[in-house]
């Protein structure tokens, strides 16, 4: 949704995993949809978690979960993702983030979901939460053909100009977006001190 040059807006950008929901949505979906998969078992094993800590750029565990769901064709994946988002995902909801989203929507903000999670999950969640627009990584046959990790600011610039920008995330890779924003809400389970060295404490939530 490209705005006209003479149109300004209040734009609120939300991350998904770890922000609106206290989980990695792909991982949670994979565990639910592929309970007996060896790839899922391996992804949740201690060696895989250690490998991800040592070599985070490889995204080894994510590759395993994507491999596990490769068994589903597009029709099956659409059906399963809808069931998951409707019936299972709400238990992971971060209520105060969703309350903030709702409050901004009522005040007339344009709300944009940008996530590195796969599109087959993001589109259902965006619809469920009433987002104005959404962008997500593109999934096809067990791989992400487009990966939006760390790419939020570039995407946000496509939606300009904005009068005010609100960024809500838990990702350190979103630092460029947060520095651009007029308002911020940052959720952190880890790196609390790291965030507080960069942003006011009233913008950092450790719940």
Question: What does the model show?
Answer:
The radius of gyration is 17 Å and the shape is globular. Helix 5 packs across helix 7. With about 210 residues, it is of the alpha/beta class. The protein has a seven-stranded mixed beta sheet with strand order 4-3-2-1-5-6-7. Strand 3 and strand 4 form a beta hairpin. It starts with 9 loop residues before the first strand and ends with a strand. The chain has ten helices and seven strands. The model is unreliable at about 1-5 (pLDDT under 50). The protein has a single domain (about 10-205), classed as Rossmann fold (3-Layer(aba) Sandwich), CATH 3.40.50.1000. The chain has helices spanning about 25-35, 40-45, 45-55, 60-70, 75-90, 95-105, 120-130, 150-155, 175-180, 190-195, and strands at about 10-15, 110-120, 135-140, 145, 165-170, 185, 205. About 45% of the residues lie in helices and about 20% in strands.
């Amino acid at each position: 949704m490209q705005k006209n040059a003479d149109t300004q807006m209040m734009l609120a950008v939300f991350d998904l995993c770890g922000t609106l929901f206290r989980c990695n949505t792909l991982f949670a979906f994979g565990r639910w949809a592929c309970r007996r998969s060896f790839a899922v078992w391996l992804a949740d094993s201690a060696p895989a978690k250690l490998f991800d800590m040592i070599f985070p750029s490889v995204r080894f565990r994510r590759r395993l979960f994507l491999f596990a769901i490769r068994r589903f064709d597009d029709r099956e994946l659409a059906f399963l993702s809808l069931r998951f988002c409707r019936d299972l995902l709400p238990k992971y909801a971060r209520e105060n983030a969703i309350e903030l989203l709702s409050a901004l929507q009522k005040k007339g903000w344009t709300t944009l979901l940008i996530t590195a999670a796969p599109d087959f999950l993001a589109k259902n969640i965006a619809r469920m939460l009433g987002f104005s627009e959404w962008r997500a990584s593109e999934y096809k046959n067990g791989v992400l053909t487009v990966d939006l990790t760390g790419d939020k600011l570039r995407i946000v610039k496509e939606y300009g100009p904005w009068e005010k920008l609100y960024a809500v995330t838990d990702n350190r890779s979103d630092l460029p977006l947060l520095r651009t924003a007029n308002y911020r809400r940052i959720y952190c389970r880890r790196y609390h001190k790291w965030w507080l060295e960069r942003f006011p404490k009233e913008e950092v939530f450790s719940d």
